[in-house]
């Protein structure tokens, strides 16, 4: 059982639609990161959230850290084919020297 | 670009043979990590290093060993490969002093064990 569960695991939508991806845990994290990975490449950091309730926006992407710092969400407005990829959340726990990655959400945006 | 290279990028081997994957960084970052990626599991930590000759186990370390004799190189060894170790392996470095900052990843090494 992994520390961070993401839902949905797969998501296929039409261009222009909105979507939300969830990252949930029963554990508390000191910070949480979101990465995007394209085929044949390593993940690339999108954002880091560190405060409970924090909301960060990156163009059409909105990231929120839960008030209790146990969960996070990623909302994409008006999805575009370029948003296609694997989205991974990763949490940092106090006292640990590594990140714990979520199970991943594979997004396909159809033109 | 954090200057991480992995080798080999692709390898096919047979069950029972030893395999070593290499991760090389061009900078002087303290923390280096080996993850494996499998469908439905995201990234799972195998081992990590916090300095030369300083390593620790991750959540899926059984069947793997690591070595770091130089700051720039972190080796992952499968002593006797099994089919369950077929996966894509990613090396990563943390560019902050602690190990929980932003990670930069290599391009991955795809290993197939027949």
Gyration radius of chain A, to the nearest Å? Answer: 13 Å
Please provide the count of β strands of chain A.
Answer: 11
What is the H-and-E element order of chain A? EEEEEEEEEEE
Biggest interface found: A-B, 28 and 25 residues
Strand content of chain A: over 45%
Specify the biggest β-sheet of chain A: 6 strands, mixed
Output the structural class of chain A.
mainly beta
Oligomer: heterodimer
* Weakly predicted, low-confidence segments of chain B: none
Number of strands of chain B: 11
Which key features would you list for this structure?
heterodimer; A: 111 residues; mainly beta; 6-stranded mixed β-sheet; 0% helix; B: 114 residues; 7-stranded mixed β-sheet; globular
What does it look like?
The complex is a heterodimer of chains A (111) and B (114). Chain A has strands spanning 5-7, 10-14, 19-24, 31-37, 44-49, 55-58, 61-65, 71-76, 85-92, 99-101, 105-110. Chain A is an all-beta fold. In chain A, the strands form 2 sheets. In chain A, strands 2, 4, 5, 9, 10 and 11 form a 6-stranded mixed beta sheet that branches. Chain A has a 5-stranded antiparallel beta sheet with strand order 1-3-8-7-6, with no helix packed on it. In chain A, β9 and β10 (99-101) form a beta hairpin. Chain A is globular, with a radius of gyration of 13 Å. The model of chain A has no long low-confidence stretch (mean pLDDT 94). By secondary structure, chain B is mainly β. Chain B has strands at residues 4-7, 10-13, 19-25, 31-38, 42-51, 54-57, 64-70, 73-78, 87-94, 103-105, 109-113. Classes of the chains: A mainly beta (111), B mainly beta (114). At the A-B interface, β4, β5, β9 and β10 of A face β4, β5 and β10 of B.
